[in-house]
Amino acid sequence: MSQVTAKEHYSSIPPKRRSVNEKSFFQRLWKQMDIQLMVWPGVLLIFIFAYIPMYGVLTGFMDYNIFTGANIFENPWVGFKHFEDFFNAPQFWTIMRNTIVISLLKLLVGFPAPILLAMMLNEVRHRNFKRVIQSITYLPYFMSWVIVGSIVMSLLSTENGSVNMLLKGIGAIDESINFLSMKDYFWAILVSTNVWKDIGFNSIIFMAAIAGVNPSLYEAAEIDGASRFKQMYLITIPTIMPIIIIFMILAMGSLLSAGFEDILILAQNPSLRPVSDVIDTYVYRVGLQNQRYDFGVAVGLFRAVVSVMLLTIANYLARRTGNSLW
Amino acid sequence: MVVTTAFLLTTVFAGCSKSTNDPKPSTPKNSNVSTDEKPADVWQLGSSDLEFSAYAHYGWLDLPAKMEDVPFWKYLKENKKVNIKTIAAQGNHSQLMTTMMADDDLPDMIFGNRYDPDIMRLYEAGKLVALDDYMEKYPNLKKWLDTKSADMLRFPDGKLYQFPNWYTSRPNGSAGYVVNKKIYKELGSPTLETMDQLYDYLVKVKEKYGEEVIPYEADRAVDGQGVGLIYTGFKENAYYRSLNGNTLAVVDEANNKLASLFTDPAFHESQKFVSKLYREKLISQDMFTITDRGPVQEKLMSGRVAVFGSSDPMPYASAAHLALSKEDPEAGYFMIWPFHKAGLDKNKIYPGGYDLLGWNVNVITTAAKDPEKIFAFLDYITGPEGMVIQYYGPEGGNWNGLDENEQPILTDQYNAKEVSEIQAANNPVMIAGNTAYIDPAKMKFELAKPVEERNWLARYQESVTWKTHIDQTALATHLTPDPGTELADTSVNVLDIFLQTLSASSTAKSDEEVDKILDQAEKDAQALGYNELLEWRTERWLENKKMLGQ
């Protein structure tokens, strides 16, 4: 009986309810003031630094003049001229190939590496040993590429380079190999340097995820007689899967960013260009060094559009597993 | 007309006598100017305060932060009431310049590279002050800068906007080969003249010293330098400038035009030679990968280089020579006459070039409140008094007065050590140098010293480098297409090909591969419009030659 009265009561006052809700929206806002205060600076920052400068993409469709700036009234509009210039550039296909191949290689090797490291560290029982390994692995992340680059260069140098000396010492080679000027080795050097630099830091997030796995699951598995490998395969991986998928989606979005500083520094030798030139280094060379900002913006815009498409596709695919970003 | 000329001459004369005899500004001005002319309102440096902002448009050079940091600037501040507020690029010059342009917040004076497209951009945007009227009014630039050179410096509207630095009328530069004295003696001091002899020598070095010593160290091979020198040894009258990104063409004397570098037989031959050195480990294996000069200097300093080739060996080799010879007088480095291919005339081999217009320029922007005063300041520096004070300190110390050739007269207190310290301290920021004036002055002092006290380079300037540098002004000026044009894109793309090719062919696995790489480069470059670029450059080059009367 009371249920019926309640129903009647609600249905009899729909307009009033709306007004109460409207009020309560602001009330809710006020109640959440502390949280709102944390969100708004971030929103504001994104608005100021990511949305307002977006009018700059117009530069990609005009002949930019540095003295007038991105003045939409003075500079001549040229439509897709700069885009066409890029697509027709003689280096276009080389650049696209390098960008995609280097990205995929980085994804293929660099993505699973920190997960593996996190899982391996998780199995280490000795706390101090684990900490030392963690510190050692994430230290390189805080070094700038200039430093890492010089370390790699002196390691691989033909004159007194440790790698060459080691290889000669064990009799693997007779004469020094000039690693950093050979096209065949460049991708391998680039990818392994990247993995070395980032593996420790990137593994932190996965370590945190693994730490969140309910220990009773392992205990139960152990009672059922599951080996350590079985436990990793059947418990650890499935439970951290959502995180892996989310990071995978984000990585897909940056497929056309194959890196910049690392390539600029490691590929000093111009004869490596056929394997090392990627979109970012090309934009840097043509757009910034030769001050063709309009062209640089056009290429950047092209990359952004492709990235958004890739991100959407990856998210769409991931949604089927129930772990999508949105 | 006659009156004007007379007037000008008197101003010139008045200016000269003032700067030579009396550095004080309060000398009577133009007392002998005819009365029907208005008295010239020539502003004397030091007669009133001068304050302006200045900026060096280089990634590797900043003007001194404080006037006191450099002796000459300190002198200017204390005696000439000059106060320069400097803006530092701190290695990020392109970005800073872009920001300043976009904000329209330009410095009053910019010191930069004559070939930098930014100077042209400023001119096109009407941001530069024309200097012609001032040049007529003030004595020194007018006197020392050749009229033809001034014409070459002019921009398309026929006006002069650039105040040159180190302009000259005679050869300068120090490109060439430096040989390690100790190794040379230990190998029996063989004749080193031809490329074959160089090769044999390098082989011997490798045999005797193994991996300890780098037989041939090529300075900045990525830019061409140490490798480019070798190219000039394979053809008489070849220009090192041919390998520069803003030229990238060889002179075809027969057809009076500029031709492709990639088809030049001498370039094929020199690259084969270089690749042979590379294959046989006679040349630094890291030359294209380690582009930092630090390791090169370290090798030179420790005496581990047998032959060093560079466009400017001076700063590295002379420091290394000093360090090595201090410990062992027999050690060190010496410079030799450039190598040539057997059969060529060694007197027609030029590993370096010089430019009548110098290298850097100063421009005055429309942001300057009083551009004339800044010009007067530059004009003072480029004159005898300004130059001598930079090199020998204030008058009354090491020198007193000028002789009939306007060269400084040494005093009894002349202190060679102090002079070299003054020069070293002033050296990085000489902004309106006058090579034509100071080189003979320097040489006069150098030759007065005993041999062992002489400046390391000065010893070889007279005997080697001044004779082995060729005038490349016509091949260097106005050959850069305007930024943003199709030709500019072509130029950038062809330069890209060249840099890749230079590295690839220098490290090629066989002579056949060198030919293949260069032929492919020619094909690629032609597909990008290299030929149109060459035709355009030929026109400019012919105009330059006409203007210079060459």
Automatic annotation (TrEMBL), chain A:
Cell compartment(s), UniProt: Cell membrane
Gene3D superfamilies reported for this sequence: MetI-like
Pfam families the UniProt entry points to: BPD_transp_1
Gene Ontology cellular component terms for the protein in this record: plasma membrane
InterPro entries: MetI-like, MetI-like_sf, UgpAE/MalFG_permease
GO biological process, one term: transmembrane transport
Membrane topology label: Multi-pass membrane protein
Keywords, in A-Z order: Cell membrane, Membrane, Transmembrane, Transmembrane helix, Transport
Keyword Transmembrane helix found: yes
Superkingdom classification of source: Bacteria
Principal location listed in the UniProt entry: membrane
Listed transmembrane segments: 37-58, 95-117, 138-157, 199-221, 233-256, 295-318
Family: Belongs to the binding-protein-dependent transport system permease family.
Record protein name field: Protein lplB
Higher taxonomy: Bacteria, Bacillati, Bacillota, Bacilli, Bacillales
